[in-house]
Amino acid sequence: MSQMQRAHITGRRRIVSIVATAAVSALILAGCSSSSDTTDAAATDTAAATESAAAESPAELTGEPVKTMTITDINSPGAVYPNIHISADAAQEYINATGGINGRPLEVINCDSQGTADGAATCARQATTDGVVAVVGSFNFSPDAMIEVLEPAGIAYFGECCALGAKENTSKAAFPFGSIQMYGVGEVKKAVEDGCTNIKAMIIEGAESFWPPMQEAAKRLGAADKLNAEYVTQPGTVQDQSAQVAQLLEGGTDCVVSVTSETPLTAFMVAWDAAQPTAKFYGPQGNLNKISAAGHEEILEGSTVVGIYPDIACPVWDDYRASLEVISADPAQDYNSLGGLGTWAAYMGFRQVAETVEPADTLDAATFLAAASTAKIDLPGMLPPLDFTQEWTAYPGLLRMVNQSVVYSQIQNGDVAPLGECGVFDDVAALVEAQS
Q1: In whole angstroms, what is the distance from residue 244 CA to residue 293 CA?
Q2: What is the reported pLDDT for 51?
Q3: Separation between Cα atoms, residue 195 and residue 279, nearest integer Å
Q4: In this model, does residue 38 exceed pLDDT 60?
Q5: Is 237 exposed, middle or buried (0-12, 13-18, 19+ CB in 10 A)?
Q6: 48 lies in a domain?
Q7: pLDDT tens per residue across span 256-283
Q8: What pLDDT shows up at residue 352?
Q9: CATH number of the domain bearing residue 317
Q10: Are residues 347 and 226 in the same domain?
Q11: How crowded is residue 136: how many other Cβ atoms within 10 Å of its Cβ?
Q12: What is the pLDDT of residues 144-156, one digit of tens each?
């Protein structure tokens, strides 16, 4: 038996013992369902955990490892995402603790794209030489540099939360799970529903493509006159953003919707707090979070977070939380985020598709890509159903974005908490689809 396989068997025993605790913890953490729904779900989870704990350890994993790669920026002068690699490690632990991929061990290779297109392409080339089945649950700001390598090599770029590149949104080798272009739409919808009458938008430099869908959503909601015709551009670097705050609040603004990133948003909050605005703030999941809210809890209380994945407190993430504990994940990282939740969901979807390839020893990049191309991903509570047999032709340039739904959370006491029931997704496609 190899050292890696012995480690996986140890992990299986550890995760079986911890899952019962995680199920009970869901009663305390959840708060995103009605009391009866939460109780029923927790009771079901507890029963399942008890049954798992009583079961014998799974059979030893055999065969060649199923290799995957997860790519993100770690050593970078810009934003870094260690939570993505940590979540990939947690997924490896969980999958190998629960039978592997049709009995074969999963081996995750984490690659640092270093914040550059060259780094992203280098990781993609490593994926081709290392014989990975797919690149899973990754994110950086140079996705097309990876697609240019992965597509001709016949390797799937699978399950990413946040498709930003033109090729990433059109390549048949890309299988994004997220609806990132829709969270600005969700913010506008929520602001209108909240009764906002003077809405201004802040969009980080480089994300201008988010603006037209937000304007279209306001128009179709009958609120075009409530959304200011121009947005305020946020700098992507850490600097004094008092001027941006002044622009946003000028003229009696009652609500601000934003497309932003965590690091510049953290800097923005210093100026926002200093202005003591009465305007309500709306921001994206993983960026408007406990890190950017730290020190500004009072001014941000009740602010709305719009995202792709339900809050980490929801019972559907019990195994994720337990697996993070098993691997002693860095508590300083934000796992209630697009990167954290998205990477876990990507690996759960990867396993679902990979296990349709039979016999198990025929699973490779080519057979996985073929299976993914006809896949209908079913991850109840994590994501709405995703059908990769049908491209989304209703909006130009986003053919591969088969998920057009968002979820809502809010800032409570400086942390993110669910807003509404767990597993309820708001499909906002009708607010932006091209009309005939």
Answers
A1: 18
A2: 39
A3: 12
A4: no
A5: exposed
A6: no
A7: 999 998 889 999 999 999 999 999 999 9
A8: 98
A9: 3.40.50.2300
A10: no
A11: 27
A12: 999 999 999 999 9
Is residue 82 one of the residues assigned to a domain?
yes
Return the residue matching tokens 């908490």: 417
Q: Are residues 272 and 421 in the same domain?
A: yes
- Whether 341 and 299 map to the same domain: the answer is no
**Tens-digit pLDDT profile for residues 276-333:** 999 999 999 989 999 999 999 999 999 999 999 999 999 999 999 999 999 999 999 9
Please check whether residues 244 and 272 belong to one and the same domain.
yes
3-class SS at 2? coil
SS3 label, residue 14: helix
The per-residue pLDDT for range 41-95, each reduced to its tens digit, is: 433 343 344 334 334 445 689 999 999 999 999 999 888 999 999 999 999 999 9
Assign 33 to helix, strand or coil. Answer: coil
- Rounded to an integer, what distance in angstroms lies between the CA atom of residue 266 and that of residue 261? 9
Strand order of the sheet with strand 134-136? 106-112, 66-72, 134-136, 156-158, 174-175
159 and 81: one domain? yes
Read off the pLDDT of each residue in 165-178 and give the average, rounded to a whole number.
Answer: 95
Q: DSSP labels for 138-204?
A: -B-S-HHHHHHHHHHHT-EEE--S---STTTTT-TTEE----GGGHHHHHHHHHHHTT-SSEEEEEE
Q: Are residues 167 and 259 in the same domain?
A: no
Residue 159 lies in a domain: yes
Range of the domain at 280: 181-307+410-431
Statement to judge: residues 100 and 195 lie in one domain: no
The total domain count for the chain is 2
CB 158 within 8 A of CB 388: no
Element (H, E) at 409: strand 405-412
- The pTM score is 0.85
